[in-house]
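As the next step, I selected for study one protein, both as residues and as discrete backbone shape codes, as given directly below:
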Amino acid sequence: MAILAIAFGISALLLASGFIEWNLRYGRESTIHSELGHIRIFKPGYLLSGSADPFDYLLEADAKLEQAILSVPHVELITPRLSFNGLASYGESTLSFVGEGVDPHKEERLSKSLTITSGQSLSADHPKGIIVGQGLAENLGIKPSDSIVLMVNSATGGVNAAEVTVLGLFATITKAYDDAALRVPISLARQLMRVTGSHSYTILLDKTENTSTILDDLKTSFGKKGFEFVPWYRMADFYNKTAELFSRQVSVVRLIIAVIIVLSISNTLMMSVMERTGEIGTIMALGVKRREVLIQFLAEGFILGVAGGSLGLILAYALGALISAIGVPMPAPPGMSFGYTAEILISWQMAFEAFLLAIITTLVASVIPAVKASRMEIVNALRHNR
């Protein structure tokens, strides 16, 4: 029963942790592959002051720089982006928007998590075709194939406008972004703003886990040329807050499981000591030292932890695979635009920490019963069964 209690506790911890881990990874990859990319290149100070004076932080097109960064290991793509804002008008409705000029061809690879909910994506064949966030489109009352007017401030100080066609509507993991954003071909964005450069370069890597390593390499190789390299996690405010919340939830679950294991194992071993009082007195009378009795009960706790932890890992992986095969339908959480089907993702690190938790908690639970057994008076212990 003690082994089963440990096993079910560890499997419950791993399943809960695996569910949260999958959601965090899904949120991370969706954020990277729909909005931010892995690493952004800016002029120093753009993130602090770029919104107030965007034309002072433009990067000129530099084909040599792009080729040099593409030659860095693990870098798969680099593409320019031009940020701007203004007013979008349709009929009698006029709303402010946050826009980005992107390369339609490269954006297909970078923004693979951006969901086109209606119509089609950006295309080089439609130089005046744009895509609009689902929330912004609903507020404007527009749909694919509608024509709208975009008005922005140009670098010359005037107001420039263009009539564009809505190719499609999109949704990302962040609803607040979808309620205000639209994307246009970068050539159109440059025409509207009357500039030739871009505000940033977005870098796509082969794996998110390589971000920190490549970031250090880029800073070492190109940092002296007047560029600021910013990783995705410095810009993903919504994801960071979600990850912090989920981490606290996992910590609470881990604490509850640890308390359950300690109480169950402590109770089991304490009953074992009481039932074996006569045996303990006998072996101590035969010359077994108190320290050896202490070690024996600690060893029993350790064996319970290993056995229960191992069984818990097997149960967790089996149930995790079954649940992932079926899927967990998730409604749209607060701050997101759509629901999704979740899975269970149990990493080796999570499994190791859970297994270690099982061993440590059983050893802690074994201390009091072991000490009680080792301090018994031999005479009283021998009389216990009479």
